[in-house]
């Protein structure tokens, strides 16, 4: 009988020992994994994109790319020590209307997704060509709202800026008033920061414009960059409020 008991105990111990070995091995593997994770350098975070979405004014028509206000804003970001946090992307086509911008926005946002970039700030700077061509203000507003809707859908945490535009006197008082009011309405409806007039301090000044009298020269682009930076800098330095 004693021999049977001893044999049973020996058998049980033989069964227990492998179980303990497996448990210890699993615990060691987990500990090693945690230690490796703690000691390994963290992956460097990608800077968030500031997309300036516009037409020839944003594309620096008639100038080198480095002279345009998007490039100047990038310089200001670097000077402020924010280059590791933000990078400027000018997504602009000369002559583009709000309809063209609506057709293009999916492609522009898809580019961010392909490169795994987060959209931190989106500035909408379209509508000038609609106005100069006397196109429907209601249609323009619907197009611009469509752009903002898609941006909010794909990047709900992105901060929004709406850059407004004024029309010249020859467009008529009623058209001019309704045109400029559209940007106010869009900014309010989308909780966006409003720039009432993108060309503030530049329009009408020969020293700040190309010979065509419409597009800013290098000095004019600098004024636009300075005006935008007043709005953009505090926005970049404040903590992001995530959408629920």
Automatic annotation (TrEMBL):
Gene3D superfamilies found in the cross-reference section: SGNH hydrolase
Top-level lineage group: Bacteria
Transmembrane intervals: none
Entries under InterPro entries matching the protein: Ester_Hydrolysis_Enzymes (IPR051532), SGNH_hydro (IPR013830), SGNH_hydro_sf (IPR036514)
UniProt-listed SUPFAM superfamilies: SGNH hydrolase
Signal peptide interval: none
Name this protein carries in UniProt: SGNH hydrolase-type esterase domain-containing protein
UniProt source species: Cerasicoccus arenae
């Amino acid at each position: 009988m004693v021999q049977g008991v001893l044999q049973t105990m020996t058998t049980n111990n033989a069964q227990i020992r492998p179980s303990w070995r497996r448990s210890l091995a699993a615990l060691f593997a987990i500990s090693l994994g945690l230690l490796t994770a703690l000691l390994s350098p963290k992956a460097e975070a990608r800077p968030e994109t500031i997309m300036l979405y516009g037409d020839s004014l944003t594309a620096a028509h008639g100038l080198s790319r480095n002279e345009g206000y998007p490039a100047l804003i990038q310089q200001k970001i670097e000077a402020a020590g924010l280059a590791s946090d933000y990078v400027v992307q000018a997504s602009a086509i000369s002559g583009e209307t709000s309809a063209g911008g609506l057709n293009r926005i999916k492609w522009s946002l898809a580019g961010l997704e392909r490169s795994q970039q987060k959209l931190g700030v989106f500035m909408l700077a379209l509508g000038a060509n609609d106005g100069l061509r006397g196109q429907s203000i209601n249609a323009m507003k619907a197009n611009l709202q469509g752009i903002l809707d898609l941006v909010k859908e794909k990047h709900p945490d992105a901060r929004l800026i709406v850059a407004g535009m004024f029309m010249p006197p020859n467009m008529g008082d009623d058209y001019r008033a309704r045109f400029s009011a559209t940007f106010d309405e869009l900014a309010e409806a989308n909780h966006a920061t409003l720039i009432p007039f993108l060309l503030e301090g530049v329009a009408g000044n020969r020293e700040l414009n190309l010979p065509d009298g419409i597009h800013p020269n290098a000095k004019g682009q600098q004024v636009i960059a300075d005006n935008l930076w007043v709005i953009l800098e505090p926005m970049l330095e404040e903590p992001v409020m995530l959408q629920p």
